Amino acid sequence: MTIAIRPTPELAAAADAQFEGIADPVEQALAVLRWAGETFGAEFAVTSSMADGLLAHLASRVVPGVNVVFLDTGYHFAETIGTRDWITGVLPITLVNVTPPQTVAEQDLSFGPKLYERDPDLCCELRKVKPLAQALAGFVAWGSGIRRDESPTRAGTRLVDWDAKRGMVKINPMAAWTQDVVDAYVAEHQVPVNPLFELGYGSIGCAPCTRPVAPGEDSRAGRWAGRGKTECGLHT
Ligand code: SF4
After folding, report:
1. 229 occurs within a structural domain
2. Which positions bind [4Fe-4S] cluster (predicted)?
């Protein structure tokens, strides 16, 4: 497969500067996604945790049939799997469902049960980071739904960045969105949302590593709570 434009750090920086000037966050996100689709074609994919269908909805508006990569870790809430199937059923996307090489039972045999409690970094490496790296090897640009307002570790997120670890362009079209923008877009477009948000979850990952958040906590405070870990390694 050939691509018209080679992904480079310079290309990413120029695009980032171009899109930062768009004031409306929805128009900004659509412009970034449209650019990625036109520039990289079938070699562009977005990822989704299936917390909601927001990025998939935005991307499918300007890149119909867009590849949506989901890391099916084997530890997801039933609600998350249901949200994946809901989104795949109602949006014009191509689901790329990625599973780790080992099932949870096989991992338990190799590393002992509940690896997520004893060594969550290794568990994330085995069930998220490596599988995503393999899945993204077939693409030259990828997109995520991370936002600057989600946590201090994400405050410097760029709209278009260079993923030096993978040698790819990485886009974060919703980097500048706030929760108010999210809520308004979801309501206007009837975007599928994981029902766990109704139960107080602020960010949704694997079931053993996710708890609801208390009022006033940042949305990712319920991820790996009490384990000194804030990111799974996909965006760092
Ligand atoms: S979030 Fe938890 S269960 Fe999921 S891969 Fe990471 S450590 Fe394992």
Report:
1. no
2. 123-124, 206, 209
Q: Which residue has the tokens 């969550």?
A: 120
CA of 120 to the centre of ligand 1 (A): 6
Residue 217 covered by a domain: no
Q: What is the pLDDT of residues 210-229, one digit of tens each?
A: 988 877 777 777 776 766 66
Q: Which of 152, 124, 145, 121 is nearest to 217 (CA)?
A: 152
Euclidean distance between CA atoms 158 and 148, whole angstroms: 9
| Nearest atom (ligand 1) to Cα of 128 | 5
For residue 104, what are its two tokens?
């949870």
CATH of the domain at 114: 3.40.50.620
The boundaries of the domain holding residue 40 are 9-202
Task: For residue range 104-157, list pLDDT tens digits in order.
Answer: 999 999 999 999 999 999 999 999 999 999 999 989 999 999 999 988 889 999
Identify whether 214 is part of a domain. no
Strand partners, 140: none
Please tell me the residue having the least CA distance from ligand 1 atom 6. Answer: 124
Question: What is the number of H-type helices and E-type strands within the chain?
Answer: 9, 6
d(Cα 51, Cα 205) in Å, to the nearest integer? 8
**148 assigned to some structural domain:** yes
Other C-beta atoms closer than 10 Å to the C-beta of 9 total: 13
- Residues marked as catalytic: 232
Centre of ligand 1 from the C-alpha of residue 69, in Å: 17
